[in-house]
Write a structure and sequence with these properties.
This protein is an alpha+beta fold and about 425 residues long. Helices cover about 25% and strands about 20% of the residues. The chain is globular and about 75 Å long.
């Protein structure tokens, strides 16, 4: 009678600091922290920390350390791509920034920023400010959105397409009215779930969901490039695919390319496998994968071959025409090889791009068809090339991706509501 009934630590409420639940306990120095799994039965005695008020200097040291220690998938430190305006943030925002660094995955947003930097659209590292952090009213508001979308809200405005083309900013009007690049209804993004019949439905990620929109590009006779939103709905397989594809739009008209039409299931179904593979699953030999459909028609897959620190950009574009045929195109900004004629075969003019593309397409399967002129209906024609050693579909300098770019504005608005090959499908 009168004895106190013991309570285990698991029955105790977690302490909170500034309404944030505690999930680490510090040791030795105030900015050196144990993970909670390491403290075990000390949990109950750590409740006093709910009254601890970490000094801003401690939080700044902790944040700088976390930024440098956090690595992207390829081993790049996060602070090489994204950092924060650390010296000008108060304690509350420093805690918010620290949580974003240690508890969120930045790879997709960081890759889009690195691609934008490669194309001179932004400087790295991007410095996230108080204004950017306040795009989310609370941690709960941040968590209510897909992770990649929520992160891009804070960093997208640093990608500057130049002049009237604007910045890759997201504008949130609430109630699902999210817009990109320009704060106009025509630039609205649709993040609602895809119908079960859509080819991307089974590959949907809640953190990086598909997006439907009408944002395409065109370039006129003067070479000016702009946005066109009057075409068919484009469905990107993921939000990161939308980011990367949109950033690349302006580059395609300046790229050299070669292409070939091949049966979808030719030579063991290599192309079918690449088209059907989830955009969230890495393709060996590539840096990033993008996928989209236009007006719910057959899928398209873009495979970025070059690393983000490469001196040029190269990609493989695989477009399913829907009739059993696939157009395989290789694009590059690689400089013309020294001493090689401008009308030489693609593989001689751009040997580094060709080598990268061969390993992805299969050096003994699809690559000989694209680069060496092999008959796609035969296993091997013996010498690995046609009579002139060139692919009969080499497009030279006349680059047109046939999807996301419309060539010129008049073409982009002509016929079938096609958006001038807008590179995406109807929303």
């Amino acid at each position: 009678m009168g004895n106190r009934v013991p309570r285990t630590s698991s029955q105790q409420d977690w302490p909170a600091i500034r309404n944030q639940s505690l999930d680490v306990i510090h040791r030795e120095g105030r900015d050196e922290l144990h993970k909670i799994k390491a403290v075990g039965n000390l949990r109950i005695s750590a409740r006093f920390l709910s009254g601890v008020d970490f000094e801003p200097a401690v939080l700044r040291r902790r944040l700088r350390g976390a930024l440098h220690d956090t690595q992207l998938a390829d081993g790049t430190p996060l602070d090489a791509v994204v950092t924060f305006d650390i010296d000008n943030l108060g304690s509350k925002l420093l805690l918010q920034a620290w949580w974003l660094v240690e508890h969120q995955q930045w790879d997709e947003a960081a890759d889009a920023l690195r691609l934008a930097h490669q194309l001179t659209y932004c400087e790295l590292p991007v410095i996230v400010t108080q204004q950017d952090l306040e795009k989310h009213r609370s941690k709960q508001a941040y968590l209510a959105e897909p992770r990649v979308v929520a992160l891009w809200k804070m960093v997208g405005r640093y990608v500057d397409f130049g002049g009237e083309r604007g910045r890759f900013e997201l504008f949130d009007h609430g109630n699902g009215d999210l817009r990109a690049v320009k704060d106009e209804p025509e630039h609205r993004l649709n993040l609602t779930p895809l119908p079960p019949a859509h080819p991307y439905h089974t590959h949907t990620s809640p953190h990086n969901p598909p997006v439907r929109h009408h944002i395409a590009g065109y370039n006129d006779d003067s070479g000016w490039y702009g946005w066109y939103t009057g075409g068919r709905v484009i469905t990107d397989a993921s939000f990161s695919s939308f980011l990367m594809s949109t950033i690349l739009l302006r580059t395609y008209p300046d790229m050299q390319n070669t292409e070939k039409f091949i049966d979808r299931d030719a030579r063991g179904g290599v192309l079918a496998g690449l088209l059907d593979q989830s955009v969230h699953q890495p393709v060996e030999g590539t840096t990033a994968a993008m996928a989209f459909t236009i007006a719910n028609y057959a899928p398209h897959k873009y495979l970025l071959l070059t690393p983000f620190d490469h001196p040029f950009i190269a990609s493989i574009d695989i477009d399913d025409s829907g009739n059993g045929q696939v157009c395989v195109a290789v694009y590059t900004t690689e400089p013309l090889a020294a001493g090689v004629s401008a009308d030489a075969p693609f593989k001689q003019r751009f040997p580094r791009t060709t080598a990268m593309a061969r390993s992805v397409l299969g050096p003994m399967t699809i690559a000989p068809i694209v680069f060496d002129g092999e008959d796609p209906n035969e296993d091997d024609n013996g010498d690995g090339q046609d009579d002139d050693g060139n692919s009969d579909e080499d497009m030279g300098g006349d680059s047109d991706d046939g999807e996301r770019n419309g060539g010129d504005e008049e073409e982009a608005t002509a016929g079938d509501g096609g958006g001038g090959n807008d590179g995406h499908d109807d929303i």
